[in-house]
Write a structure and sequence with these properties.
In chain A, 56% of the residues lie in helices and 16% in strands. Chain A is built from twelve helices and eleven strands. In chain B, α6 crosses α8. Chain B starts with a strand and ends in an 11-residue tail after the last strand. The chains are: A alpha+beta (506), B alpha/beta (234).
C-alpha cells in the first residue's frame, strides 16, 4: 500500500536501534506520528469510511512504522492511532469521549490488535536482521579462515585478514603492528599509497584490540571506523576480536615455524660440523700413521731392511707428507671459503703461464702420465688470482692423476670462448657417471676408487668456490677417451667477472 | 767451503737444514730470530742466508731490507705463505729466491747451488753463454739457435740478457722493468708479458712446458737452465 513511504531495510534498522543520537530518535518519533497521521487523512478523505475501515488503516500504519523504525515507532503509531480513531471516528466526533459501548469495545479490540501487530512486526523484523547479521558474520569468518589457511608470506596472510575485517565492518582503515621472531611487522589496509605522507585518521573513531593467544602477546590491531558505524556495536566488536584472535594465531604459527626452522638449521650445521670433524680427523691421522710407521721402521737399527725396502718406506713418508700438506691446504681454503674470504687478488696473467707453472711444480706426480697440452695461440691475458687458479688446476689435475691408470694420458686444453677462457682437463680413467657430475663438486663428496685411496673430498669443492669467486663456472663432462673431463670457464676481464658475480648475488 | 746462515725460529727445521746442508759440504750457522740473524750476518760473513719470514722479533722482510743496507749476500726466503703479494714483497726487498714450506730438500739445495754459483762467477763473465743449442754472445749482442741467427729487437735482447745472466733466480716484474726499461718503470707488467711471449716464440720455448723462461704467475720470471760449462775455462 502507500504507507509508510520508506522501504524497510532490516539490517540497518536493526543495528540502528542500538545507536544513540538525536537524529535517530527524531526519526522514530516522526515516523511514529506520521504513519497514523497519514492513515487519518486517508480515512477522512475516503467516502463512507466507518470505524472499522479506519481501524484497519491505523493497524496498517502501525505495522509500517514498526517495520521502518522499530518497536518504539510502532508504539507511538498505536497510541496516535487510538487517539485518531477516538477523536475522528467514534461519536461524539472531535472529542475524546466514547458514547456507545460498541465503540468502546471496538477501540479496546483495536488497542489489543495494534499492540499484537506492533510486537509481531518488531519481532519478525528483528529476526530477519539477526539472521542477516549471522549470515554476514559466518561469511566473514569463512573469509578469515580461508585467508588464514592460505599459504604465503606472513604479511600477506595478516594483510588478507585485516582487509577482510575492514570489509566486513566497513572500516576506514586497519593497521596491524606486531613483532614476530624479533622482526617487527606492520600491515596497513588499505596499503599506504606512495608519496602519501601518512594517513590522517580521526583518532576519535579509533579502537585498539590486543593480538594475544594463550601463549603470548604479539602486538595490536588498530581500527578506524567510518563515522556512520561509530561506535561499534557489541557484535561488531566481537567479530573484530575474533579476527584479532585469528591474526594472533597466524602470528604465533609463524613464530613457531621460524623457531622450528631455526632449530633445524642449527641441527644441520652441527651435523655438518660433526661430519667435517670426523672426516678431517680421519684424513689427518691416516697419513700421520703411515709416516710414523715408516719412520719407526727405519729407526730399527738391526738392519732388517734392505736398500729397496728402505726406499719404499722413504717413498711412503714423502708421499704421505705431501698428502698431509695438500689436505691442510684444502682445509685452510675451506675455512677461508666459509669465512667468505676467497676474494681473488687479480692480476693480468697468461693462462699458458699458469698451466706451465702448475705442470712444472707437479712434474714428480705426473711422471707416470703422458701430459698433452693443446693451447690456442690467441689466448688473451686473464685477470685472475694466480695462486688461487694454480690451486684450482692443481686440484683438478691431481684428481685426473688419481683416477687414471699409470701410463694414461691427461689432456689439458685452453681456448677463448667469447669473453671467457675455457680450460679443459681430460683423463682416460673410468670417468664420472652422469648422475654424479654435480655431486663431485660438493664438500666431502668422494668417488670410490675401489682401493680406498680416494681424495679428501675437498679438492673440487674448493676449485668450484674459487672459480665462482672469479665469476666463472666449473663443471664435469665425459671425455672423448671415456674418462672424466673437468671444464672451467673464466671471464677474461675482471669487470665482466665482477658484474656477473654481483648479478648472481642479486 | 761455503758457509750458510740458517734463520728459523723452529729448532726442528734448523736441525733438518743443518743435517742436510752439512751432508752436502756446507758449514752452517744458526739464528732463531731476526736481530740475532743480522748480528750473525755481520760478524760471521756467511756466503748465503736461508731465511724464514715468520720470526718472533722482527718481520723477515725487514731483515732483508736491513741486510741489504750493507751486504749483497744471497738470501733464499722460506715461508708458509704462498700468496703472490708476499713473495713479491720479499723479492722486491732484495731476496734472491723464494720457497714455500713445506719444500723438498733437493729443491732447496738446487736453489742454494744456483745462488752460490751466481756469486762465485769470476769478475769477467765469459764472452759467450751456451744453453744447449742456444748461444748468446754477450759482447756482440748476438743470439744463435742451432747455429741460426735469432733476430731480436734491442729491448728483446736486453730482456733476454737480464734473464740469462741470473740463471735460476726469480726476477720480479718490477726488477726486470727497471733493469730493461729504466728506473721510472715498475708497474707495467703487461710490457713484460708481450716481450716474454715474443722471446719465447723466437727461442721456440713453450709456455706450458718451458725450457728457458719459467713464469711465476703474478710474481716474475726465472731463467731455468744453467749455462753449459765454458770449455775454455774448465
Amino acid at each position: 500500500m502507500d504507507e509508510p513511504t520508506t522501504t524497510a531495510q532490516p539490517a540497518p534498522a536493526g543495528l540502528g536501534a542500538h545507536r544513540g543520537g538525536a537524529l535517530h530518535w527524531l526519526r522514530i518519533v516522526v515516523l511514529g506520528l506520521a504513519a497514523p497521521g497519514a492513515a487519518t487523512l486517508i480515512a477522512l478523505v475516503l467516502p463512507h469510511a466507518g470505524i472499522a475501515s479506519a481501524a484497519c488503516l491505523y493497524l496498517l500504519a502501525i505495522a509500517g512504522a514498526a517495520v521502518a523504525a522499530g518497536p518504539v515507532a510502532g508504539m507511538i503509531a498505536a497510541i496516535g492511532g487510538f487517539l485518531g480513531l477516538n477523536y475522528f471516528f467514534t461519536p461524539p466526533e472531535h472529542t475524546l469521549k466514547v458514547r456507545s459501548a460498541d465503540d468502546a469495545i471496538a477501540l479496546g479490540v483495536y488497542l489489543v490488535v495494534a499492540a499484537l501487530v506492533g510486537a509481531l512486526v518488531t519481532r519478525v523484523t528483528a529476526e530477519r536482521a539477526r539472521a542477516a547479521r549471522r549470515e554476514q558474520e559466518a561469511r566473514s569468518m569463512h573469509r578469515v579462515a580461508s585467508a588464514f589457511l592460505s599459504p604465503g608470506p606472513l604479511e600477506r596472510i595478516v594483510g588478507d585478514l585485516a582487509a577482510t575485517l575492514a570489509d566486513v565492518l566497513s572500516l576506514e582503515r586497519t593497521e596491524i603492528r606486531a613483532v614476530v621472531s624479533d622482526r617487527p611487522i606492520t600491515v596497513r589496509h588499505p596499503p599506504p599509497r606512495p608519496g602519501e605522507d601518512g594517513p590522517h585518521d580521526d583518532a576519535s573513531r579509533r579502537f585498539d584490540l590486543p593480538l594475544t593467544t594463550a601463549s603470548g602477546s604479539y602486538g595490536t590491531l588498530i581500527a578506524y571506523a567510518t563515522p556512520s558505524r561509530w561506535p561499534p556495536t557489541e557484535e561488531e566488536l566481537g567479530l573484530a576480536r575474533a579476527v584479532a584472535g585469528q591474526i594472533a594465531a597466524a602470528l604465533e604459527l609463524a613464530e613457531l615455524d621460524e623457531r622450528v626452522s631455526r632449530a633445524r638449521t642449527e641441527a644441520d650445521a652441527s651435523a655438518a660440523r660433526a661430519a667435517l670433524f670426523s672426516s678431517v680427523t680421519h684424513d689427518l691421522r691416516t697419513p700421520l700413521a703411515s709416516i710414523k710407521a715408516s719412520v719407526t721402521s727405519l729407526m730399527d737399527h738391526e738392519g732388517r731392511y734392505d736398500e729397496v725396502q728402505r726406499d719404499e718406506l722413504l717413498g711412503t713418508i714423502l708421499q704421505e707428507a705431501d698428502r698431509l700438506n695438500r689436505l691442510v691446504g684444502n682445509i685452510l681454503d675451506l675455512a677461508r671459503m666459509r669465512a667468505g674470504a676467497l676474494t681473488p687478488d687479480r692480476v693480468q696473467v697468461d693462462v699458458e703461464d699458469v698451466i706451465g707453472s702448475v705442470l712444472a711444480r707437479m712434474r714428480p706426480s705426473l711422471k707416470d702420465r703422458n701430459v698433452r697440452t693443446l693451447l690456442r695461440p690467441d689466448l688473451p691475458a686473464v685477470a685472475l688470482d694466480p695462486t688461487q687458479i694454480d690451486q684450482v688446476l692443481t686440484n683438478v689435475i691431481e684428481n685426473a692423476v688419481r683416477f687414471s691408470p699409470a701410463g694414461g694420458t691427461i689432456v689439458i686444453s685452453a681456448s677463448r670462448w667469447e669473453s671467457f677462457v675455457e680450460i679443459r682437463i681430460a683423463d682416460d680413467g673410468p670417468g664420472i657417471p652422469a648422475e654424479e657430475r654435480e655431486q663431485v663438486f660438493q664438500e666431502f663428496y668422494r668417488r670410490d676408487r675401489g682401493d680406498g685411496r680416494g681424495g679428501t673430498g675437498l679438492g673440487l669443492a674448493i676449485a668450484k668456490a674459487i672459480v665462482q669467486a672469479h665469476g666463472g663456472r666449473i663443471w664435469a663432462e665425459g671425455s672423448p677417451a671415456g674418462g672424466a673431463l673437468i671444464a672451467l670457464r673464466l671471464p677474461v676481464a675482471a669487470e665482466t667477472a665482477d658484474a656477473e658475480t654481483s648479478t648472481a648475488r642479486r | 767451503m761455503s758457509t750458510i746462515l740458517v734463520v728459523d725460529d723452529e729448532p726442528q727445521i734448523r736441525r733438518a737444514l743443518r743435517t742436510a746442508l752439512s751432508a752436502h759440504g756446507y758449514a752452517t750457522i744458526e739464528a732463531g730470530a731476526g736481530e740475532a740473524a743480522l748480528d750473525a750476518a755481520a760478524s760471521r760473513q756467511p756466503d748465503l742466508v736461508v731465511l724464514d719470514l715468520g720470526l718472533p722479533d722482527i718481520d723477515g722482510v725487514e731483515v732483508i731490507e736491513r741486510l741489504r743496507g750493507w751486504s749483497d749476500v744471497p738470501v733464499i726466503v722460506l715461508s708458509v705463505r704462498d700468496d703472490q703479494a708476499g713473495k713479491v714483497k720479499a723479492l722486491d726487498a732484495g731476496a734472491d729466491d723464494y720457497l714455500t714450506k713445506p719444500f723438498a730438500m733437493e729443491e732447496l739445495l738446487a736453489r742454494v747451488r744456483a745462488a752460490l754459483r751466481r756469486t762465485e762467477r769470476p769478475g769477467s763473465a765469459p764472452a759467450t753463454l751456451r744453453f744447449g743449442p742456444l748461444a748468446v754472445d754477450l759482447a756482440r749482442r748476438l743470439v744463435t739457435d742451432d747455429g741460426e741467427l735469432v733476430h731480436l729487437t734491442p729491448t728483446e735482447y736486453d730482456l733476454l740478457e737480464a734473464l740469462l745472466t741470473n740463471p735460476g733466480k726469480l726476477l720480479t716484474h718490477a726488477w726486470l722493468l727497471r733493469r730493461v726499461w729504466g728506473p721510472n718503470y715498475g708497474d707495467e707488467s703487461h710490457y713484460l708479458r708481450v716481450y716474454v711471449r715474443q722471446l719465447r716464440q723466437k727461442l721456440r720455448d713453450d709456455a706450458s712446458s718451458p725450457v728457458y723462461i719459467l713464469t711465476e704467475p703474478g710474481v716474475g720470471y726465472r731463467w731455468l737452465p744453467d749455462p753449459d760449462p765454458d770449455p775454455l775455462r774448465t
